[in-house]
Amino acid sequence: MNGVSMGSEAAFADYVHRLVDVFGHADRAEPLNDYCLGLMLPVDRKSVEPLAAVTRAKFDRHRQAARDRRTQ
User: Fold this and answer.
1) What is the pLDDT of residue 18?
2) Share of residues in the chain with pLDDT > 90 (%)
3) Which GO terms label this protein's molecular function in UniProt (predicted)?
4) Can you tell me the distance from the alpha carbon of 68 to that of 38, in angstroms, rounded to the nearest whole number?
5) Cα 50 from Cα 69, distance rounded (Å)
6) Distance spanning both ends of the chain, measured CA to CA
7) What phi and psi, each to the nearest 5 degrees, are found at residue 3?
8) I want to staple 38 with a disulfide (CB 3.0 to 4.6 A). Which of 11, 55, 57, 70 is the partner?
9) Cα separation, 36 vs 6, whole angstroms
10) How far, in whole angstroms, is CA 28 from its chain's centroid?
């Protein structure tokens, strides 16, 4: 975006950040990120509950590791 080539993770983060800006609720950024990520996962049902179950279990470890790195 803005003429700069981004990796897919950076482009996804930018996309979600822009959505959060439109919604105007910064406290919804993490749930929105999880939901958008869940929409791209290979799961049979794309409703909120199955996506939440998949993304929560799969990414809790990743989030905790990121939090641990920030506090060190």
Assistant:
1) 93
2) 7
3) endonuclease activity
4) 24
5) 29
6) 32
7) 75, 5
8) 55
9) 18
10) 11
Model confidence pLDDT, tens digit, residues 11-45 = 988 999 999 999 888 888 888 888 888 888 787 77
d(CA 53, CA 25): 23
Distances in Å between the Cα of 69 and the Cα atoms of 7, 12, 55, 62 are 22, 21, 21, 11
Exposure string of 17-49, with b = 16+ CB inside 10 Å and e = fewer, is: eeebeeeeeeeebeeebbbebbeeeeeeeeeee
